[in-house]
Amino acid sequence: MTTSLNLNKNEIKNLKNFLSKNKVKKIDTKSKYELIRVKDGEINLILYKSGKLVYNESNSSLNIINSVLEKEKEFDYIIGSDETGKGEWYGPLIVVATALTSKDILKLRKIGVKDSKTINRNKIFEIAKKLRNMSFERHSIILNPTTYNDLYVQFKIENKNLNDLMAWAHSSVIQNLLEKIEYCKAKVIIDKFDFEKTEYRLKNINRTNLEIIQKSEAESETPVAAASIIAKYLFEIEVNKLNEKYKIDLRSSNPKGINPKILPNVAKTHFKNVKTNLIGL
């Protein structure tokens, strides 16, 4: 059985040094995309120029992986948050946060947790099911369409927008986790969407020994990637429930083809294509 993970520059250097120091046998690469190919006894590794490492799960291969991966030493926990459903006219908005120790991060990387944009739907389901059986702390907010629509109207009355709602949801899942964990030093990483609104929602958090970072493309960080995978998995589960309840297929439909009376129960009503089909209701 083979699996893969992405190595950073330091880890690639560590791998090269390990192979050289331990005289692990390399063989010729088979494509222009490969950097290193190893076949030595029970060790099978392919390192691509992109940083992707494909390896078999023998004890010897896993020993190499454990030796070259960098371990988080500065923080007891790293919390990552991400959301999904913001861009879809149908289904819920889901925001998830995970709190991972350095050991958790290594375990998750080994089962393939990485930027969910690089993983197909079937693989996301496969990884998410593994994550469900792991014991790390996580918290999610699922805003199904009816709840989402009510909140959106409430925020709009207060002259706030979708980013305000998302900032509220992100801060809620993060605060929930901070109350569950004990730490001397921790870090929070948020996939950035609106710096000022998110900072405002996080203003009451005690930042003693706590670093909070908002960054673009934050799925390069394992805690954020895990949150994203879980969120996407939950989104698909919730859409399946809506499909079953209302006897429709939201993934292949458009608002025109759905009874206007049930649209508010399955769709985000502020979307232009949904709003058009609610006129006269």
What features would you describe in this structure?
The chain has 281 residues and is α+β, with helices and mostly antiparallel strands. The protein folds into 2 domains: 67 residues, TATA-Binding Protein, CATH 3.30.310; 163 residues, Ribonuclease H-like superfamily/Ribonuclease H (Nucleotidyltransferase, domain 5, 2-Layer Sandwich). The strands form 2 sheets. A 5-stranded antiparallel sheet has the order 1-5-4-3-2. A 5-stranded mixed sheet has the order 8-7-6-9-10, sandwiched between helices. Helix 1 packs across helix 2, helix 4 packs across helix 8 and helix 6 packs across helix 7. The protein is globular and about 70 Å long.
Furnish the topology, listing elements before pairings.
Layout: E1 2-6, H1 9-21, E2 26-27, E3 34-40, E4 43-48, E5 52-56, H2 59-68, E6 77-84, E7 93-100, H3 102-110, H4 121-132, E8 137-143, H5 145-157, H6 162-180, E9 186-191, H7 195-201, E10 210-215, H8 222-246, H9 263-266, H10 272-275
Parallel strand pairs: 6-9, 9-10
Antiparallel strand pairs: 1-5, 2-3, 3-4, 4-5, 6-7, 7-8
